[in-house]
Each structure stands twice: as C-alpha cells, then as structure tokens.
Amino acid sequence: MATETQSYIGKRMKRPNAVPRLTGFEKYTDDIQMPGMLHAAYVNSTYAHARLAGIDTSEASAIPGVVEVITAADIPEYARNDSAMDRTFFFLASERVTFVGQPVAVVIATDPAIASDAASLITVDYEPINAVVHGPDAIAKEAPVIRPERQQEKPDQHPNLSAETVFEQGNVEQAFANAAATSDFTMTTASVHQGYMEPRSVTAAPDPTGGLTIWTATQGQFAVRTAVSQMLRIPETNVRVEPVTAGGGFGARFMLFEPLVGWLALRYTKPVKLTITRTEDFAGTTPAPEKVISVQLAADSTGKFTAVRGDLTFNTGYFSKSPFEPAALMLGSSYRIANYAITTREVFSNRSGTGAYRAPGLPQVAFALESAIDDLAHKLGISPLEIRRRNAAAGGDLMFDGAEWQPFDPQPLFDEVERSPVWSEPTGPNEGVGIALGLRRGFTDSASANVRLNADGTVQVVVGSMDLTGTTTGLTQIAAEVFGIPPEQVQVTTANTETAPHAGRTGGSKILYTVGNAVIEAAGHARQQVLAIAASEMEVGTDDLELQDDRVTVRGAEDHFLTLSQIYTRSTQPGTQYPPVFGHGNQANSVKAAAVSACVARVRVDPESGHVDIIGMMTVQDVGRAINPSEVEGQIRGGVLQGIGIGLYEGLIYDEGGQLLTGTFMDYTLPRTVQAPSIDVVLIEDPSPHGPFGARGVAESPIIAPAAAIGNAIFNATGARMTELPMTPERVWQAIQAR
Description:
This protein is an alpha+beta fold and 739 residues long.
C-alpha cells in the first residue's frame, strides 16, 4: 500500500470542467457555426457487396441550396483508393461497395436539412455480389473475394486473410497428453459499438493563406494533423487541429472523416461541416470486431496450468485495424503457462472497418480463457479462486512475446476477493457466483507539457492530450502538488496542434501515466525558477524558502515574502534581469506498467426464461496510486458497466446479406440505469516505479473481466456453460436445456 503523504495527491476533487458539461454549456463539434458554412451529407450503400453501375444525382442537384453532389469521379486521383487499408484514407467508393453504409457520394448544401433531403433523392444502381458477413466464412475455400488486389499481392494465401501471427513455445502435445484435466471451448463474440452519445462530427475551414483548421473530437490531434497533411498533400504547418470536447470516445475517436471534410473546405474555400446520423455511426465507423476464439487448456493434478492452445479469428471488416495480436498475447500471458501454441488472425469481410474499444479484444479473450479456467477448477475439485491464485502471472514473469511483466502482485487482489461478501456469502436457489481476472500490459508514449506563471499568480498547464477520462483533474492535482499551490490556482488546458506541446494519442490508459510525468517535470522546473527569483529578490538561499498558497515566504520570517503575482511582475517587466517563469517537461517512458483487476459477479438465473439478474458485483484493482480516488472509482464502475453490456446485452447484428439490424439505440441494447447493479470497488495501491506518484493506468482493466465473471456465475448457478456473447436470455435458456 502507498504510505507517502501528499497535500493534494490521493484527495477527492471535483472535475474543473464538470459544471459546463452537466449544465449544457459545453460546446461540441456540431455546435460550431460559422458565416457561410456549408453542410455535407453522405449517400451510403444499401448493399454489403456490389458493383457500382451508376449514380443519378440530377434530382438532388436541382434542389435550391444544393451546391454540389460529389462522387468518386470528382475527387483527386490520389484520394480515389478502393484498396486503402485505413478508413481515414478512403473518401468514396468508386467501382465497388464493400459494406452497408459505405459512402458512395456526398451532398454539399447551405443547410444540413437540405443536404440530407437531397441525399435521399440520389439514385444508385447496384449489381449485387455475394457477401461474406461472418469471420470464419471469409476464409472458406469458395468465399467471395473481398479484396481482389490481395490475390496478386499474396498469391500463396487466402485473399480474405488480412494477417496471421503464431505464438509457440515448448511441447504442447506432450503437456496435453500428460494432463490430469483439460478444457476445450469455442467462443463466439459479437461485434460491439463503443456506445458513445455523440455521433461523429467534423468541421473544417480554410484561411486566405492556404491554411486549414480542423475542429474534431479526437483522441489524437497530432495524428489527425499528420493524416490530413498526407492525404491532402499539404504541409503539416498548414494544418491546425482544434480538439473539441468529445461526447464519449472509448478508443473510437482517433480519425475517420477529417481528410475528406478538409478537402471539401479547400475545394469551396468555405467552412464545411459533416455530422453523421446515429445509424451511419453504427453502420459505418469502427466498432470492435466480431471474434471466434477457441481455447484448449491443460493442467496437472495440483491445478498448475501446463499448456494452452488457442485459435482466434477477428473479423476486421473491409479495413485492416483489429487488435488481433494484443488480444492473443494476453490469452496466455495473464497466467504462467510454459507450453503454448496460439494462432491469431484477422480476416476481411463485408462489414465496415473495426477499431479499438476500451482494452481492445481483451474482454472477449478473457471470456474464453476464464471460462476454460473455471471448467478446469470444476473438473479438478479446486476452488475457482484458488486455481487462479496458483497460476496468475506476476511481475517478472515472461509474456508470450518475450517481454517481462513489470512489477505487480495479484495476490492482494485475491485476498480482497476472499473477504468480499459478494464472493463469500452462501448462494440461494438458482444463484451463482463467478470470478475472473482482468490483466493487461499498459501502453506508453512520449509526452511533453508546459507550465507558466500568470499575472494573477495562478499557474497554467498546457498539454496536447484530450481529456476523456478525467485526466484534467489528475493533472491539476499533480501540478498543484509539485508546484506547491492549491489545485484551485491551477488550470490545465489542451491546446491545438499549433501551440500544444506534443502528446501521444489519448488511449491505452496512458495519458496520466505519460503526460503526468511530463507535468511533474514541467511544474518542478517552473517552481525552481520561482524560488530562484524569490531568493535573489529577498537575498536568501532557495533552501530557506517555502512556496505555499499564493506566496513564497522566508522560513521563520512569515512577514518576509513575495506573492506569485509579484514574482510574475519581476520576471516580465521591462528591463528585468529574470526570464519569464516557464517550465517544460519532456518524457519518453518506454516502461509499460501492468494493470490488473479481479471481478466477482453474483447472479440469479430464471431457468424458465433464461433471464439473468446481477445481484452483486465487486471489482478490486491495483491502481498504483489513486491520484483522485473519486475519478478512479468512477472509471472502474464505468468500465465494469460496459463489461456487463458486452456480457449480457450488446451486439451488432447483421443478416446474411450484411444488413445491420441494430442501427439505433432502440435496437442496440446498452445496459440502462435500472439494469446497473451496485458495484463494490476496492482499490489496491501498489505504486508503479515509473508512474507519476506511483499511478498506473486505470481505465481499461475494469472492462476485461465482468463478462467472464458473469458467465462463470451462470455456470455456478445452472451448470450451463455459455459460449456466446452477449449472453441473452434466449441463449442462457438454450444452454440450460442443453446441459
């Protein structure tokens, strides 16, 4: 446990930006209005796979207010790329459509309603081609070819195979032959949408000097700038990205439509806005992929895992972007397993592209692995908790790729589980309890931050990272702690790409871990400058000074002080001998701190209907150091609730022709308030040696284990093993009948 005492670290503090968000004053991308602004609306494919035989735009073009209807024939040759692997670099379909919701034209009009109405009047002639919707079907021998160019690029493999990786070590066959017990499951998990409240929206505006400004709710403003520059073939110095508050992200909001909207703004030399509909967002963006995961696990008579086989197929849609390798890495690296043979692949299909969703791929992998572990425990007569105690990985163990787990210890988490009434209390009729582990290797990145002193004695912290998870609050507390002033005197600002210090993408639970260290360095640098000026002015050594609240005081002489405002004046007035107070921090932390949680679910199952009630939920997580416990607990509860959604409710459902059947929040089922159980959260604070004040990444680990814990609880209650996500009442009932 962390024992060091600080003034502001570890304290509960309200979000500085909470009030505008809660009262409706926060501005989002679709709120942006400019004189002369044009509005764009897509015309989307209604077929999953078809040749484009023709597009009739005449009726739409005749509507007053329509400026132009753009098709692939109108866009530059360099942007007309049906074989692009990244959706960001794909503007409009030119010869063939490859998923329902793929844009084939875009209407530009003076009003968004006019643009939408005109888009509905455009007639597209299609010549349908057989579609492949599900991952395993994509690599069948007679499957329609999704990307014909792959037949020439890689003639020795199936053209619908995007990539494949194999992890192997030891003698797997012998380990299975000698095993006291084995487990064998194939799990199918649905594609899930990130479920953010704000549909995608981008605004772009040119300036007379040839520059281009992009307003977008992005998790990576510098990456957007680079993509727009590369796609439009203009210098990065001509592109400014203004990050806008996002209405939820969860890994989805990096970039997508920004190059196209930027090109439109340059084409018309006017501001252009594109805001897609909810259905367009569901059908045509970057949800988490559908997966088929086969796991075989072997153990000796003591419950020690001896081998694992795995076969994972990730349905990446038309674009290559699925997290198939990191997911496979965690399949066996979460536990000590000496022998393994795991093949993981991504395959193309006639769906939209896929992308990251909080702990990409890991909730589904955990569902498969943790179910297999529970099955072994049942066969060997060992407690599900005890078998995990004996096998869980810890700091110093090697992962499948040869990297070493950074320091962490899962045993205190198991101790907390054992003490929890959610785990330990007796179960009633049709009740069950299940446990699962949520372990991931953290991500890291380079980062920088600036800290400057303002005229009124407040401190401005400037970063280049987006606040999606409350990191502004944490960075405020870090800066206040290091500088030595109350958090109320600190303001953290995310600047645009023209003025912000560099930060990596906001994702992978790494912003506080990376930018936080840069803020420590920058605030410490600025503090040193303040003390140096004060020491010179008051003719004492810096060791004789105290910086507290709004002033620097000589120890033992409280009436001998300078306010921070006075120090600002001393360093900025004409003829001053002191440079302005300006601290800068640079970090390139390459050490990936482990994040580990354990989740316990207690359920009651109605055997007549298959309905599952969660009657208890507990999660314990090693957070390293909780910079702001309220924010950390909120992150964990939110992650657990999303994990419940993945486990019981959520899934993008397609028919055999590739039509999306769950294209609105009426059809795509998110867990609602009345379905959200009370979630007990226990924080373990085992500091990371590389995180700011010992903090570890928090946001992703809590989503990993809930679905698996619920599945194990259903088995404990009914004896029925679930093999599909989501575990709908119908599927639970069918599993009970098939026991």
